[in-house]
Amino acid sequence: MKKRLCLLASIVLTGITVFAQEVKFEEFDLDNGLHVILHQDNTAPVVITSVMYNVGGKDGDRSRTGFAHFFEHLLFEGTKNIDRGEFMKIIPANGGTFNANTSQDRTYYYEIFPSNKLELGLWLESERMLHPVIDQVGVDTQNEVVKEEKRQRYDSPYGGILEAIGSNLFKVHPYKDPNIGYIEHLDAATLEEFNAYFKKYYGPNNAVLIVAGDIDVEKTKKLVGDYFNEIKRGPEVVRDFPEEAPITETIKAKAYDKNIQIPAILACYRTPGFGTRDAYVLDMISSYLSGGKSSVLYKKLVDRQKQALQVQAVNLGQMDYNIFALFALPLGETTLETLLSEMDEEIAKMQNELISERDHQKLINQFENQFVNSNSSIAGIASSLATYYLLYGDVNLINKEIDIYRSITREEIQAVAKKYLSPNQRLELEYLPKKDDQ
């Protein structure tokens, strides 16, 4: 009976993917270099307007880290035509929602409105790009906001793990610095530096505009031109980040957190960026190891051997280098060394023998399900369209990326595990409770 249920689940998942609707879109460029992608879906009276800028935590002077994240907040302050504090009032007053987020590689703003408010969404984003007010009042206000956000984030249990990984895994690439930056850098920054940063990175030619949902394509094209054509082209952004030397000997490090009582062990590998085929394979490896309660590491360390409170394998995607990380919290008297050894045992198995055909098919099913879910909402589609254009250079990955995962073989999984996941290629980080005297 269980076999029949498993077979049925597999058929259902596969069927969903086969009949998943293709995401259709249209692309064009304005004369100022702004790339525009339109996606029409008239099934619900909703529209999203979003802009992704090709600027993130890795960009800018390393003595002024955190500027991209700072601008995520600052560009809600107001513009020449929107009074201070009104930006975030206008949107809910018109039935909309909004948000923004920043990674090491990009910054993303979006608004979701009833479709009859499309023009309002375009006006807001053009205002943000055309003439935001960047003054000392706004800078001082948002500096306090960012400080509070950092306190909340890093004062939470295990909140400093990413910073500890970055500072030890990267030596020369700007991924070594936290996306949120260092408070002393923001405190020391001048108003002139903030304005210069905006002029360098927030031009239309360094961005992509997505309009998705209940739209008329031709009318939307005209509106986009009306609101964005007048914005002048910015300088061309040239990046030349230093390359990291390969890790050939295990890096051992410790970090301390005053907000935890249970230590953690991490094994972190610097691997190719998310646009490479090997990165897709490592996605599958991370899911095989810890994708749910039926995964290899969870069943072994949490269920059977009861050595871990939690265990996880993550392939953290970034443009230049990914971070593949194993993470575990010990249960009872289990040592960090034991947890690391037990996780290494499972990696070694992947390197020395093929995973089963059943596990391989299960992985493909999982990624097919994720693929369908990622395209199940207008917000998800808009984010994917922006990401695939700006960071991957291929918008149609929104429809064909699943074919990459389907094509990954068991032999390829074994080969990639051998290539990147050896102990001499990693950072071993002990994340420990901080004592009063430390």
From TrEMBL:
Residues 36-176 form the Peptidase M16 N-terminal domain. Residues 333-360 form a coiled coil. Keywords: Coiled coil, Hydrolase, Metalloprotease, Protease, Signal, Zinc. InterPro entries: Metalloenz_LuxS/M16, Pept_M16_N, Peptidase_M16, Peptidase_M16_C. Residues 1-20 form the signal peptide. Residues 189-366 form the Peptidase M16 C-terminal domain. It comes from the Bacteria. This is M16 family metallopeptidase. Belongs to the peptidase M16 family. Pfam families: Peptidase_M16, Peptidase_M16_C.
